[in-house]
Amino acid sequence: MKVNVHVRRQSGAVQVFCPDLPGCSASAPTEDEALKKLRARVDEYFAVRARTLPPGTRIVELEV
């Protein structure tokens, strides 16, 4: 799966966020560090979603 990530430098830090995934954002002194933190938040976002799906629901990936 691929997601768009917005990157901007503000107040001496790099801020990154995924507009399509609510709450998935991070900031750090460097872009690389910010992206690593964001990856962890994206992983957690999908882990939480998987735990809250109704029984019998399965997740499939569709690349568009």
Overview of this structure, please?
There is one protein chain. The protein has one domain (6-51). The longest helix is centred in the middle third of the chain and has 21 residues, at 31-51. It has 64 residues and is α+β, with helices and mostly antiparallel strands. It is 33% helix and 22% strand. Strands 1-2-3 form a 3-stranded antiparallel sheet, with helices on one face.
Can you lay out the helices and strands and say which pair or pack?
Blueprint: E1 6-10, E2 13-17, E3 25-28, H1 31-51
- In whole angstroms, the N-to-C terminal distance is 9 Å
Oligomer: single chain
Output the number of helix runs: 1
Radius of gyration: 14 Å
Largest sheet: 3 strands, antiparallel
What series of H and E elements makes up the topology?
A: EEEH
- Helicity range of the residues? 25-40%
Question: In what order do the strands lie side by side in the largest sheet?
Answer: 1-2-3
Strand share of the residues? 15-25%
The stretches of 5 or more residues where confidence is low (pLDDT under 50) are: none
Considering the chains and any ligands shown, give keywords for the structure.
64 residues, alpha+beta, 33% helix
Quick summary of this structure?
The protein is of the alpha+beta class and 64 residues long.
